[in-house]
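Every protein is a chain of amino acids, and every chain bends into a shape of its own. Below is the pair of lines this work produces for a single protein:
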Amino acid sequence: MKIQKKIGVYLGLVLFIMQGLTGTAYGVNTGAPTSAETQAPPPMNNDPEGGAGDEIDFLPVTDPANAPEPDVTEPVYDPVSHTQDEFFTPTTLKGIYSSADLYFYVQDYWDVKYVYAQIQYDVSQLLEGRLSSMTLSVNDVPIQSYRLEYKNGSSQILYVKIPMSEVRSGYNSLKLSAYARLFDEEGCVDDYSDANWLRIDGTSFVRCGYESKDPEHRISYFPYPFMSTYNPTGEGLAIAVSDQAANGEIAAAMNLMADLSTDTKDRNDIQVCLLSDLANINPNRTILISGYENLPQEYKDRVAKAPDSSENATVTFTDDSNGNPLLIITSMADDSLLEAAYMLMDGNRTAQEGSNTATVEKGSAQIAIDGSRQNDMIAGNYTFEDIMGSGMSFVGPFHQENYLYLPVSRDFVLSESGKVALKFRYSENLDFTRSLITVFWGDVPIASKRLSKEYASGDELNFEIPRDVIGTAASSIKISFDLEIADMICTPRQSDMPWAYISKESTVFLPSSADVTLSFDLKASPFRKEGKFNDVMLVVSDAPSSDELNLLGQVVAMYGNGVEPYGSLLVKRAGAFTKEDGDHNLITAGTYGSNGLIPQINNELSFRYSPDGTGFESNEQLILSEEYAKTIGVLQLIKSPYALNRGLLAVTGSSSEALLKVEEFLRQSRQRDKITKDCVIVAPDSSVTAFQFIQNTAVMEEPTPMEKLVRNKRSVIFTAIATSAMSMMLIAIIIILLRMRTYRKMDEK
């Protein structure tokens, strides 16, 4: 009996080891949102007073022949202060049954009065109007169906009122499902064909009409009202630091600048300045960051709770002397100001601050930073439940597709060893000679498998990401099923048949690339990694001006688009900078005479300053005229002379006027797109010329021990098992030899 128990234990250990070796156990919880966290908030209540909240009786029609004609009259509502439009991506739906989704977002500070959709579309001239229809659903609730007909080749427009009872705060989906039959002389043609199509025009949109709510000085509304959807450029917002411009004040200001700039669209008009220059800017919304000792008395009087000797930071939401919104961040400790900035960047923390004042404990950010480090071993491992809160469903015949939107940052680039393990099931009434599943990385197919009746109740698709997509970026994985059914000619469609379902236990392993790329074409590298600032140090002049802070603010905004809190962005004065500080990715800006670091790195620059520092010298790629060289600004990305695998960005100008031109250039998103390669000259007329000086742009960053363990997990497991097995065999041999020696001695006696 004891031997049987031991054998059972050994068998259990072997099964556990085999599970690790087959790679089926790498879907580990990574700290991604749980299903409870990702569930949608409850629907918004109707406005009982406004006509917009009226209930509308929508009865989806399942029989296309009985579906009504599309409503071609634009709805009329009472005037509102603001509207927000979300436009469809131009899409063509093909086949008998297909669908497209548009997601629109409702901010929590919106008092929504109405929502409606305008759909402009074209249909195939072969469409059979009696048997073809379109159904619109909001958050998977059908709200209306219409009959589809071809009308002399003209584009058609329909309007759909969306009931307020189905609209909720946060993300909402509008699904357009098309059921399209083809017509011929003998009836209908059901075989899949490019001839039965419906094209949705890019002018189609969902419009939300709303009033903005009174923030009531609640910090929980941040970044509203400092940033809002009805002011997408940030015009009128100033982020100010004290005239002493302590390093911690600037670091906090730049982190907030990066965070708030994410909400800007075509242009970024947010200003960063010294407090004494605030009157010249005349903002109508201000965020003031200052050490308490540097804070003028008029602002100290507005701080609801003065910081104490505990070195905590306080955040106060109040009004300035003109009655405009004012947010004051202050502390007795310079480094605690950055803690307050992190809190404001973290939506989960601001949501807890329901009053006009908040205390941020010193060291609170370290908890999040340590948690991030502890997750290094399992970074990149996700289950569908981690990402979506559920599995993924596919319903209806023929080609069906869904997207898995990846929880990765905008700077994510796939490295080697990526894996996908899908567990799924599907209906048994398919034509299995033509039914299959296909997986795409972005729009690139990476794996497929034919479906089989034998495995309909439980099938799997396990594969490694192909090498040709390694090093590329994608924000989603597309999964499609071709659910073909035999003998479908002219038979009515059943909306719940056939079907396929991907289990929530399905996993993706997506390790990020560790390459350091010195190129403006990949603007995240090397200053951002996994969504956070990556060991960034801003080297500022000893007495930074508002112009210098504004310029650095625009550079940080360019690299910080979509940045997450708890990264590393520090500030150092040029006069205090030493080689020991060089193990960072450095950003600096100024002229030869204004910033003490620039003369030190002049020999490393692609375009060096002339000996008198008033202009730039020619090089092997461009001969500069003397006058032109004294009017330009140059953005130069180089290998850091202070540390290996680090980058340095120098935003240099022949004069302060040239740097102002660069600042204005960076404010416009379409201009930033022109910044390519690793060196860009900005001329006085805002024209740009890009150059490539660094030939080997990608350098492999030395991975951390944790990263090495993640990348070589299988090898580590195999080595551990092999070593353990050999050790056990060695011990067994030693025991046997000792026993034999003992028995031999006993025999001799």
